[in-house]
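User:
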Amino acid sequence: MLETCCFGKTNEVIAPKGFGYNKAIRTIIEEFRAICAIPHGSGFEKDIGEHLKKRLTSLGAEVHKDETGNILGIIQGQEGREDVPAIILQAHMDMVIAGDKKPEEAVVNPVIEEDSIKSDGHTTLGADNGIGLATILSLIKLKEKHYGPIKVLFTVSEEIGLKGAKAVPESWLSGAKYMINTDGFHSDTEVIGCKGGLRETFSRQLQLEKIKDKVSFNTRKKNQLEETELYEVKMEGFLGGHSGDDIDKHRCNSIHQLAEILEEVQDRFDMRIVQFKGGVGYNAIPGDATAIVAVPMACRLSAGKLLLKEEKHLHQEYERSDPTGRLTVKRLGETSKGSLIWNYDFQRDVLYFLTHLHDGITSVDKEGEVTSSSNLGKVFTQDGFLYVGDMLRCDTIDQENHILDMHRKTAGESGFELSVAGYHSWHSLSNSRLADTINEIYQEHHGVPMRKRVAKVGLEPAFFQELAPEMEIVCLGAEILNAHSVKERVIISSIGVLYSLIAETLRRIWRA
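Assistant: Predicted structure:
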């Protein structure tokens, strides 16, 4: 076992013994460490944007910023090579925040462990897409024989609906023939397309009532008043993950499971909900969910036994996919006069909705690859409304409409309104010189061809292709595991593969 260590506060990179990292990898780690030190959750990219502007300027780029916060850096090619095509290197600035830190305060503490970098467990690592940002900066810093012009495109809010990519000015892409997007998760794979993605937001106005000295439960004992106690029921420690790459791993959806448990407690023990929340984003499988509930004192022992039984069942069902997941119950005290609880009919509808909304894989192809899926990702309250966020990923419009029809039906039965926003699928041009060149380089170095695949997730090229239909686009990446969760890690050796692949691709494209 190699030594585990953290990054220092100086510019020195601390690497574990046994790995002779080359200059490129060391430089990427330095750039990544600087990115980790700046909170950059989706919607909080102002500071990271300023950092990236300064870095690009210091590296000789002409820098522009649009109203959305996207950044364009232009690096001129060598004199006399005006005929060489411009290449765009692209990454997104934001990261998904999971763990116990607020997005605006989520500084990442990266830790090196053997041949990987991970976080300290308090937040996600942000290798998605911080490694892409760091790799691009390093390519420019180390001046990998830049014969031709480079455009560097850093976008905001990719993780919340590709918002930055959607707003990129068309003029920023003009003059470029090729684009390398760095948002891939596998170093042996070139992504040549992606699914379309729809973000569904379901909403319903909260229906609350005040607790008096005792609570009247509207189930079997409609006219009986009960003394009640408050409990926190919590699903925590489940792995969660990326709603595209990890949707086929059968991980626990904590929101769905907690709703199922509360529905059973509601029906048997006259429980009432005070609060329900869970998840970190539409596109992340929720690993945590919490409810505060009021339970009649007369039922507390029986309800407690049921919850213990459910905890054992969860452990058995998810012991392989989510071995650290658990259900906990904590007594908070007696209910307070004047506090608010959910109206029973409202509660019944919400739990029905959360347990019956389709979640997971909807269809696969003949090779077993997922072709359509949906992810129940987030539940939260805001301004007197309860919101439920869901992410659909589909290959075709027919698949989208099939899931939408199912969800509209469930929403209608439960009193929820639905709004939908999203993006189209992307498919690389056939006979792409860029894709062929990348594959050729990889095969020369590794003896096998790269895997070509269409991503299970939505990617920013979906919008770039609309603006520049003739531009050739390929997505590459390092080896990133358990993205969008506190278990996220990136394999360090794969960072070198990504760097070398892009550097050699630039040289060959410009030499031709």
